């Protein structure tokens, strides 16, 4: 995952979180937060794997 894809996915997740707050739906807000945590976790795993391959 390159940096542009990471930031795009992170911004989409943040947008979903904000949308959930604006429309007053806690479940949408929490789904965005969980998705953002997943994006960060996958990015860190891929970075760690790439460092091991070098």
Q: Which structural class fits the helix and strand makeup?
A: mainly alpha
Head-to-tail CA distance between termini:
16 Å
Which consecutive residue ranges, at least 5 long each, have pLDDT under 50?
none
| Large-scale geometry | elongated
Describe the sheet with the most strands: none
Averaging pLDDT over every residue, what do you get? 91
Oligomer category: single chain
Radius of gyration: 13 Å
* Number of distinct beta strands: 0
Number of helices: 2
Q: Percent helix among the residues?
A: over 70%
- The run of helices and strands is HH
Q: Strand-residue fraction? A: under 5%
Please, could you describe this protein's structure?
This protein is mostly helical and 54 residues long. Helices cover 91% and strands 0% of the residues. It has two helices and no strands. It has helices at 3-23, 26-53. The longest helix is centred in the C-terminal third of the chain and has 28 residues, at 26-53. It is elongated and about 45 Å long.
List keywords for this structure.
2 helices; 54 residues; elongated; 0% strand; mainly alpha; single chain
Topology summary:
Layout: H1 3-23, H2 26-53
Helix pairs in contact: 1-2
In short:
The chain is mainly α and 54 residues long. It has helices at residues 3-23, 26-53.
């Amino acid at each position: 995952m390159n940096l542009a894809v990471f930031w795009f996915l992170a911004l989409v997740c943040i947008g979903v979180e904000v949308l959930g707050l604006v429309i007053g739906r806690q479940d949408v807000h929490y789904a965005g937060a969980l998705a953002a945590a997943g994006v960060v976790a996958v990015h860190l795993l891929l970075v760690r794997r790439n460092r091991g391959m070098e």
